[in-house]
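Inputs:
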Amino acid sequence: MPRWEPDAVGRLQAAALELFAEQGFERTTVVEIAQRAGLTKRSFFNHFADKREVLFGPVAEGQREIVTREIAACPDGLPPLEAVVLGLRAAADAIFEVRRAEVTRRREIIEANPELRERELRKRAALTDGIADALRARGVDSDTALLSARAGVLVQQTAMRTWTRSVDDRPLRDFLADALHSLRTIAAQTADQGGVPVPGRADGIRDSP
Amino acid sequence: MPRWEPDAVGRLQAAALELFAEQGFERTTVVEIAQRAGLTKRSFFNHFADKREVLFGPVAEGQREIVTREIAACPDGLPPLEAVVLGLRAAADAIFEVRRAEVTRRREIIEANPELRERELRKRAALTDGIADALRARGVDSDTALLSARAGVLVQQTAMRTWTRSVDDRPLRDFLADALHSLRTIAAQTADQGGVPVPGRADGIRDSP
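Outputs:
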């Protein structure tokens, strides 16, 4: 029976992030991570399948749970993308907000490693599928559910990127609101409003000569 | 010097799609693909790095070239998402429209194999990056370029999915227009319009008791 180790997962994650930042992801071994956390290799493998999973496992799971639970609890008839963003906001507040430094370091490590980027893409696809299912369970038609889930994950991706790069202390939920607003603005812009002639249209009017 | 082999790439791709459909991706070897195409293993490796690349290489390259060239040629001031969709439409007409059966079979093979799905995600990320760069070259600010590129790729992903599943003969460009319209609709729906009370808002009015 494994010994009870207070917050072993958190200690292993913190140790891994430190070591990846210090000496690179590739050069860090599971033994080193366990040692830094004051734990054994065996207790590492009690919690993670491999070195990569330290960066993904529990956070991705927790996020999906919170987002889908929140979507299920939304008021009836709330438009699907609004429901998705409410779910993402709940996860932002519960998981990411208190971990900005770790999330930022994690992003840097993942972006520097193609194999990790790939796993990140896969986790994002799994989150999208979970969100689409949660919307379908609310009676949203299948295609709208998938498109809304993808649009929501795009909003989150945009918000996480700007939040981890920002120099002020605005919370992630504000960046989610900003990203949703940006997506709405970009989606709403049509060639007609832009005042430029569209190929094949006779009524295009230019703003300037 | 390699012998000139008329349309070796096309013949290898067609042979690979046939064999993957007949006996599965995993059980098909490069030798079998080359044999079916009437070519040698060596000429296979003249064109593709491995078995997976038959499903990705030249099409992904061709698509990115056409999309980014088209974006560069758009009228000044065209809103960024419109420019992206014009680019995707050009690729739809030039590459995908005449290959609907192959594209559909390719999708089925990729969806059945996690490793291929991962490579598909990576290629999509590369397309997104290429599109964002093409927008930046037009003077679009960096964040708007990335968000517009992602929104455009989402539109394309949605359109490809419905096009390959549709039973009528409508061209892919029509599905792109539909998907853009759906994204615009989903993005424009706000809680206020939905007529449902939003948590924390005093002015929400329900449509029904």
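Remarks. The mean pLDDT of chain B is 87. Chain B has two domains: 8-51, 56-183.
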